[in-house]
Amino acid sequence: MITFDKEELLKIAKLSALKLDDDEIETFAHELRQVLEYTSELDKVDPPQTFEAQTNVNVFREDKLQSCDSELVLEQSPERKDSFFSVPKIL
After folding, report:
1. What are the angstrom distances between the C-alpha of 63 and each of 39, 41, 60, 66?
2. Do 58 and 34 touch, CB atoms closer than 8 A?
3. Is 77 inside a domain boundary?
4. How far is residue 9's CA from residue 25's CA, in Å, rounded to a whole number?
5. CA 58 to mean position of chain CA atoms
6. Exposed e or buried b for every residue in 31-51, given b needs 16+ CB within 10 A?
7. Which of 40-44, 49-53, 69-73, 85-89 has the lowest mean pLDDT?
8. Looking at the domain assignment, is residue 55 inside a domain?
9. Is 66 domain-assigned?
10. Domains held by the chain: number
11. Model confidence pLDDT, tens digit, residues 36-67
């Protein structure tokens, strides 16, 4: 069983800048004791000692240069100025 007393809770409360009344101190001390007891259950777990190595695989395609007629692309634009796209100012 994990021991957790009132003094330790008051120290944590002070470090956390919490103001606790007597009822809250008892409640939180009990709850923290339960949390610590639950986490002590992890000591009983025997994790596997072997791990599978994972390899990184590139799932992206390789970039391929495609030539196109800039005039055809600009024709699809809602607005253009000379040989550039025309967009609204942001700033």
Report:
1. 50, 51, 9, 9
2. no
3. no
4. 7
5. 24
6. eebeeeeeeeeeeeeeeeeee
7. 49-53
8. no
9. no
10. 1
11. 888 888 888 887 777 777 788 888 888 888 88
Structural domain boundaries enclosing 15: 6-44
Residue 35's identity, in one-letter code, is V
Q: Token pair of 64, please?
A: 């391929």
What is the value of pTM for the model shown? 0.44
User: What is the C-alpha separation between 84 and 70, in angstroms, rounded?
Assistant: 9
Residue 57 lies in a domain: no
Nearest to 24 by CA among 9, 14, 38, 34: 9
pLDDT tens column, 3-35: 777 888 889 889 999 898 888 988 988 888 888
Beta strands in the chain (DSSP E): 80-81, 84-85
